[in-house]
Structure formats: C-alpha cells, structure tokens
C-alpha cells in the first residue's frame, strides 16, 4: 500500500495524522500489538496522542473492516491489519502471536447450514519453534 491516507479515504475514514500513523504502525508490526503497545510506540512521535484516541481509532478501523480485534485470551485484546481469514498461534512462553493459513471451506460439513456465520477465527496455543529450540 503506497499511500495510507488514500487507503483510509477509500474506506470512508478521514485520514488524520494520528489515524495514518496508527494504521501504518499496525501494518508494519505484525506482532498483533495491543492499544498499550501502539500508544507507547507512537507517543514520542505524536505528543498529543492518548490511549483513548488509539482505542477509538482502532474501533473505526474494525468497523470499516480494515483491521480486526483478536481476543486470544481473557487478559488482552490485540489488533491485526491483516483481515483475510487466517488463524493465530500464541506461544505460552514468549507470548508472541503468529499468523497461519487456515481453510475453513468444508470444515463444518452441514452442521450449520441454517446459521449465518459472521466471523471465523481459529486460535491455537503452545510453544513456538524459537522457544522450543531455546529450551
């Protein structure tokens, strides 16, 4: 994506400096940051930034379908700019969250034929390759 401001406009979002920087950060940091980590990373560049602004901006992104909230466990919500269907793996040692491809087609048979599926998510927990090699 060459111009985040144009991308935001295309998705019906006014491209303020703070919104552009927050979306750029979300795209560049594939570690699924939290509101706190986004705020801490950008506060030095944007002294007027507040956690409330980060939270509200992320909510706008989610409502417009250009980001997703990931509640992997009850302790935190993380955010992802990659909105295509995929799964998440959280390492129990380093707490890093990794994306992986998942194909939901045909996985449900006809068990939910009369249901309307609005969202598909898959979360896996375990020990990542790096942590396994270190132990």
Essential attributes:
135 residues; single chain; 18% strand; three-stranded mixed β-sheet; 34% helix; alpha+beta; two-stranded antiparallel ribbon
User: How big is the Rg?
Assistant: 17 Å
Helix content: 25-40%
Instruction: Count all strands and give the number.
Output: 5
Q: What is the percentage of strand-forming residues?
A: 15-25%
Q: What's the number of helices?
A: 5
N-to-C series of helices and strands: HHHHEEEEEH
The whole-number mean of residue pLDDT values reads 91
The unreliable regions are: none
Whole-Å distance between the termini? 39 Å
Strand order of the largest sheet: 4-3-5
Reported for the largest beta sheet, the result is:
3 strands, mixed
Task: Please state the structural category.
Answer: alpha+beta
General form: globular
Summarize the structure.
By secondary structure, this protein is of the alpha+beta class. The protein has helices at residues 4-10, 17-28, 35-42, 51-63, 129-134, and strands at 68-73, 76-80, 87-91, 97-100, 123-126.
Explain the overall architecture.
The chain is α+β, with helices and mostly antiparallel strands and 135 residues long. It is 34% helix and 18% strand. It has a 3-stranded mixed β-sheet, with no helix packed on it. A two-stranded antiparallel ribbon has the order 1-2. A hairpin with a 2-residue loop joins strand 1 and strand 2 (76-80).
Provide the fold topology.
Elements: H1 4-10, H2 17-28, H3 35-42, H4 51-63, E1 68-73, E2 76-80, E3 87-91, E4 97-100, E5 123-126, H5 129-134
Parallel strand pairs: 3-5
Antiparallel strand pairs: 1-2, 3-4
